[in-house]
Amino acid sequence: MPEGLSLAEIAAQFLLDGPVAAIDPLGNGQVNDTYRVRLEGSEAPCFVLQRLNTQVFPQPELVMGNLLLFSAHVERRLRQGFPGLRGRRWEVPRIVPARHGTQSWLEADGSFWRLVSFVADSESFETIGGLAQAREVGLGLGLFHALISDLPVEGLADTLVGFHITPTYLEQYHAVLGTGPIRDDPDVAFCQAFVAEREWGVAVLEEAKARGDLPLRPIHGDPKINNMLMDVTSGEAIALVDLDTVKPGLVHYDIGDCLRSCCNPLGEETSDWSAVRFDPQLCKAILQGYVTAAGGFLTPNDYDYLYAAIRLIPFELGLRFFCDYLGGNPYFKTRYPRHNLDRALVQFRLTASIEEQETAIRSIIDGLR
User: Fold this and answer.
1) Which of 3.90.1300.10, 3.90.1200.10, 1.20.1250.20, 3.40.120.10 would CATH assign to domain 131-366?
2) 25-39, 126-140, 200-214, 286-300: range with lowest mean pLDDT
3) Strand partners for 23
């Protein structure tokens, strides 16, 4: 493979139906580099070109293996007529094969590339647009889980070992603390104290899994609001994208992450972290939508651990942001030196808001059973 290929030359290495007209950056992902590929012709479809971050995913071929298995399973269920859709549109990104060889990806210039179909007539959002949209997001996540609920986890690789295992992130945090003095900053001191006060509860989901209270299931792994695509006309949820973290896990990881992302009206990139608040009405709408689609496979134990997941996942992400900041930002992309510290403050404030509203949130969960 020649060195120094342009993005257009990379895209042309995949089985496209026509020449590339333009390639533009797409989205604001914190891990991979993502582009929209436009072919020549006004009616030509678009595609999504991604360079996978192989520092985060050291075995990207396993990511692709999971994606191929997932896509084939969901497409088969859709062809058979999945009753949970009730006539609704649901899209699964289609993997475009490489032009040469038998692989569905391309390794070029030391990078790992893939190309998938673009979901047309769709849009995504950074913050939730009201209760109706919140219910759609929950319904979309429920449909995603319902469609893969019978996909055997034994066939899925663990592409990101330790992902959403909060005790592991706490160990990494303590390892970073042990590498040297921590800078003298009141926000850093606040974050350290916040973590220290909550270390006792980080293993709640892992302990439930170990006891057999919560089963391993196929999960998305990162169902934040901007990964849910909505139909531009109907406003309905039609796809959940960014599938790198599809793997065995607990559905509670996904539910907690979805609520973390959606129930903070200010968004996770707000600079006004002290004003962040968890909105219980958005939480209620999302969970009602979710159980509409996924309630058929949830167990009593699943409901019992929902509050724990809702509280834990924002704390976990705040811990990860804080650890990344202290360690020199090796994982999450940043736009300025203290970006990950600011992100951590947002997630910790969201965690505190959840704790302050525990009674109301538990009442919402009880109403779903």
Assistant:
1) 3.90.1200.10
2) 25-39
3) 37
